[in-house]
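Hi L.,

You mentioned the student needs an example of a multi-chain input paired with its predicted structure. This one should do, with 760 residues in total across all chains.
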Amino acid sequence: MHFVVDRRIFVENVQHVNKSISSRTTIPILAGMKIDVSSAGITLTGSDSDISIETFIPKEDDENEYIDIFQEGRIVLQARFFVDIVRKLPGDKIEIFVQEQFATTIRSGSAVFHLNGLDPEEYPVLPKLSEEQMFQLPQNILKNMIHQTVFAVSTQETRPVLTGVNFEAEDGVLTCTATDSHRLAMRKVPFETTSDDLIFSNIVVPGKSLNELNKILTDTDDPVDVVITDTQVLFKLKNLLFYSRLLDGNYPVTKTMIPEQSKTDLELPRKELLATLERAFLLSKEIKNHVVHLRVLENNEIEIMSVSSEIGKVKEKVTCEKVKGEEIRISFNGKNLIDALKVIDSDHVYIRFTGAMSPFTLQPTDTDQMLHLFSPVRTY
Amino acid sequence: MHFVVDRRIFVENVQHVNKSISSRTTIPILAGMKIDVSSAGITLTGSDSDISIETFIPKEDDENEYIDIFQEGRIVLQARFFVDIVRKLPGDKIEIFVQEQFATTIRSGSAVFHLNGLDPEEYPVLPKLSEEQMFQLPQNILKNMIHQTVFAVSTQETRPVLTGVNFEAEDGVLTCTATDSHRLAMRKVPFETTSDDLIFSNIVVPGKSLNELNKILTDTDDPVDVVITDTQVLFKLKNLLFYSRLLDGNYPVTKTMIPEQSKTDLELPRKELLATLERAFLLSKEIKNHVVHLRVLENNEIEIMSVSSEIGKVKEKVTCEKVKGEEIRISFNGKNLIDALKVIDSDHVYIRFTGAMSPFTLQPTDTDQMLHLFSPVRTY
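Structure written out for the whole complex:
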């Protein structure tokens, strides 16, 4: 194996693939990154057995020539060193060649590194997925859907299936849902599919995988093909494949949890409500469940309050755009509301209560494709 | 106690004082910040018993009126909550008043906080230092001196006196020295003094204190008065007093460690040498003592090398401006050189060797008021 590659594009690809590599792996070869050079270009592969990433750097495209290939071949290099090394190399070009015993030389500018490589034959082969179930979304929309739901996954391993985001498709609409059983975040979006009447459910992608994927997705409308199988999901970008295992188990049916009617409706300015809850959180962070109390006052105002007998008390009023329905006093986890308000883009939000002991919803005013649901907290 | 204060100036002062407060204190009252309101203004005090900071916000200055004082008085508030609260308050003004039982109300915009205060009578009184031994420096010069030495203090508690920076004064020159016994950083500067012939030595200020002080010092030439006593040092800024205890013990005599002659002199470009050593550190960080090998080649070049039998090897050449004297091969802790090169401003540096087994020096080419000394590492 022997090639010279443009440093910028190589570093970018190495850093993408590195997101799938864990130094704490129990399988030694997976601490490495695989470099596979063919006449067409360079394929880089990484995997922690939950996530696998494969990128391809073409020899050239319409505008640029990226690689000089002198000899094809393959090697696996310890990612922990290799990634830092290529990032810090001084030149615009990087030369890499492999000699006997997997001895690998990396040269750039005045710097020469010799690394002990690993046997590429030991590296596991990534699965070939059947592409029967597939749909397409623009990157920015997928990125946003993940951002707006993944924060609500459970961090507890007691119900592993809740540590993922549930993907469902029906009638040309994709729904992503995350819940830790105290709060729920849901986002819908229409999608394009190549298969007629694509329907699937209970496709639960680990939150950790989606967080890594979101670091790679860009804010462009370049398409992502999403391939669904029973055990894996594959996100196909241009020159990048992102595989994730799916979580086992039955995701809870969440549709029936969402109340259809409400008794008290508020319309509120999002930023003011968020700032008020963040101030209340300065005290409520010390309290079990981060409890905050909300009550509707007269004159279209609500009061947010948090009390800790040890530290003190905070009280603040927020003026609503609209208040409709019954008076209410309710207590909830203020941090959960903060998390949801942060991923909403609109200037105003609706909060709809169905009673002091029933779940309530939070929604942006500018779209009905997003919904957040919260359980109240009993305080007596 | 009852006042209304401009939020911006109050937050700035609260954050300064907070640098001296530790939530892990064993003396409960020291987890609080003392607020003392007199007709002249507000004094804020914090202390972790190693460092104490006192700031004064005047009622007004030539340009602005900062405070409306309705009632004088004192209170101590839990810093952990108080600091975050004032930072996040919504209004331009903050009203604070104390009622019975130290119950304190903080009001700003729509937000009202009630905090359980602590008894200000319990708060320790800061010492009044004798100002017999005192000198003055511009803030930016003191800040720079600290920055260029404090990184070299020892982090080991085995010789506590080495965890501080030694201040010495003689003949109108202040010398700061830090060493962990493997490397030494020294910086000199002429200073102004009010006392004739100010001479002192073995004034060892904890590195931790100086790091906190440096977050407060600005890059202006506003003066700092430095007051020296046997057990404490006081840095007096406009409206801010920074006290630190001194370290016990005899600081080693370092002057005699610095070689007066050399056998091999190099002049090198600083940034290239730093980048080369940082690349070598990618491997040497895995090696005991972060060992790097340097040898002088022909053609005014040196070679930097680092080897780990497990991982591999890195080699790189750097072209010197000048090479004078004997050939040499020497091994040293590369990380120590990196640290020193980072605090040097000049474009070029001198390295002077006196033999493969003797300490060597690193100095900027543009001033002789700074010197770094390193022990070589035996590699056999």
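You could point out the following to them. Residues 231 and 252 of chain A are 18 Å apart (CA to CA). Chain A has a mean pLDDT of 95.

Best wishes,
N.
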